[in-house]
Amino acid sequence: MNARERRAAERLAQGVTAPSEKKSFLSVEALKAELIPVIEEFGCVLESIAAKGAGNNRTLEIVVDYREGTDFLPLDTVAEISQALSARLDAIDDGDAPYMLEVSSPGATRPLEEERHWHRSVGRLLNIAPADGGEKYLARLVSVTDEGPELARKKNTKKGQKVSYHPAEILAWNSISSAKVEIEFNH
Q1: Is residue 98 part of a domain?
Q2: Is-above-0.85 flag for pTM?
Q3: What's the mean pLDDT when you consider all of the chain?
Q4: pLDDT tens digits for 109-157?
Q5: Which domain holds residue 172?
Q6: Which of 18, 39, 71, 177 has its Cβ near the most Cβ atoms within 10 Å?
Q7: Do 41 and 88 share a domain, yes or no?
Q8: Are 43 and 76 in contact (CB under 8 A)?
Q9: What is the largest CA-CA distance in the chain?
């Protein structure tokens, strides 16, 4: 009997068993099917879901947002959704290992990926990356049309000069590689 087998025999004699193979939590796709109806009851959509970690260090990160409108999700609503999701997860969880549930709404600087994200950001300053690989630039989102966003590109000004913008123009959706809101503290 080698040292490893001897230690295993000693642990078994003391009533300590080897860790069993933990089943992983439901797949992300199975979780989506279970959780989307709960989220929709609040008039919200599932932005993203991610399962991270393993064993006793599992975290389920869920991001929810309003389906329509320009309002941001209040913390009270996020808490209510979190409680409802927790109850649903308790009903379907095998109880195999603990996990941390994190429910949140998207941050102010999240990428603008869907048209509803753009509508929510009208009036805000955006960091735009052109699809042609050109240099990124800042622009004020004036409106959102079917053809694309109407943007007023920020002029390059020297420190101390008043911020100004070029006339607004509509850009085609496919001319933008990525966009995200820039936080402004003095607008």
Answers
A1: yes
A2: no
A3: 83
A4: 778 888 888 988 899 999 999 999 999 999 999 999 999 999 999 998 8
A5: 115-155+164-181
A6: 39
A7: yes
A8: no
A9: 83
pLDDT band at 19 (very low <50, low <70, confident <90, very high): very low
Residues across the chain? 187
Q: Which of 52, 111, 101 is nearest to 78 (CA)?
A: 101
- For helices 75-92 and 28-40, give the axis angle rounded to 10 degrees: 130
Report CA Rg, the chain: 24
38 neighbors 18 (Cβ within 8 angstroms): no
First to last CA, the chain: 74
- Count of structural domains within the chain: 2
Residues 119 and 91 in one domain: no
The helix (run of H) or strand (run of E) holding residue 42 is none
Whole-angstrom Cα distance, residue 175 to residue 151? 12
> What's the pLDDT tens digit per position in 47-79?
889 888 877 788 889 999 888 766 678 889 999
In a domain, 134, yes or no: yes
| CA pair distance 40, 82, nearest whole angstrom | 13
